[in-house]
Design goal:
This protein is α/β, with parallel strands linked by helices and 267 residues long. It has a single domain, classed as Phosphatidylinositol (PI) phosphodiesterase (TIM Barrel), CATH 3.20.20. It has eleven helices and eleven strands. It starts with a helix and ends with a helix. Residues 6-22 have low confidence and may be disordered. The protein binds magnesium ion (MG). The site of magnesium ion has 3 residues, from strand 2.
Length: 267
């Protein structure tokens, strides 16, 4: 029995050359099938503030596969969308949501709550919502609490079909998978081997482009395990081309318009 289990485990992790022919991972059927993920929405060429609902709408308008945004938990346990740990100098994790509202974004939008952001994204069904949950600077436990509140919110809204989850905190991703076995998760920190991701039910690796420059065969190896591979944050056309040549699945960029041009040029 032990031997059988061993053989099954080995076969799970052995590179299977037959599977090189398998279809490339796709996020989800029915959504845009391209390689572009807009980083913090489409803001650089549109004038919309990063992580605003306007930047999400602009990304949807562009037709990207996914639009990424960042999530923090306020002191009174409201999930809000913002990149930095602070909003106008107020540390989000130590500030109540009502106080964050004192400073609107530069287009006049209030700092979006997760619920408002997801609800806006659910008005369409072409662009996926790539949710980056920031690791807590307060405590590991508070990061996991944020993951629990995130998943409760997604469940309440019925937003599962739109969602992909990313984080630099491996335990946050494991908590998400624990709560929803079908959740698509990608790890950002570049320090986990493909076999570990696969074993933990993580959908893929979303690593900085320098990682793939250093480990040139990594994408092919991870593809053999069936992982989806993405890279951040790629704004240089030559680096885009190099990653596309390695058959990367997704590229996170501040310049989705440029990425679409490079994809078209490579055809
Ligand atoms: Mg982010």
């Amino acid at each position: 029995m032990k031997k059988l289990l061993f053989l099954i485990l080995v076969s799970l992790f052995m590179p299977d050359h037959g599977s090189e022919l398998q279809a490339q991972p796709k996020f989800k059927e029915g959504f845009n099938q391209n390689k572009a993920i807009a980083h913090r929405g489409a803001w650089k060429n549109t004038g919309a503030p990063q992580n605003s609902i306007a930047s999400l709408k602009a990304a949807i308008e562009l037709g990207v596969a996914g639009s990424e945004f960042d999530i923090w938990l306020t002191a009174d346990s409201i999930l809000v969308i913002n990149h930095d740990a602070d909003h106008n100098g107020m540390i989000i994790e130590k500030t109540r949501y009502a106080d964050l509202l004192k400073y609107p974004l530069k287009n006049g939008e209030p700092i979006p709550t997760l619920e408002q952001y997801i609800s806006a994204g659910m008005k369409q069904r072409k662009t996926l919502l790539i949710a980056e949950l920031k690791p807590s600077k307060v405590s590991k436990e508070r990061g996991l609490l944020a993951a629990d509140i995130l998943m409760e919110t997604i469940s309440r809204l019925g937003a599962e079909p739109w969602m992909v989850y990313i984080s630099f905190d491996y335990d946050i991703l494991k908590r998400i998978v624990q709560r929803d076995k079908t959740a698509l998760t990608m790890y950002l920190n570049g320090d986990a081997e493909a076999v570990r991701l696969k074993g933990d039910g993580i959908y893929g690796a979303n690593y900085q482009y320098r990682f793939f420059q250093q480990y040139e065969e990594w994408i092919a190896g991870a593809h053999r395990l069936g992982l989806a591979i993405s890279s951040w944050t790629v704004n240089d056309p030559e680096i885009m081309d190099a990653l596309l040549a390695k058959n990367i699945d997704f590229i996170t960029t501040d310049e989705p318009e440029l990425l679409f041009q490079r994809i078209a040029a490579g055809r």
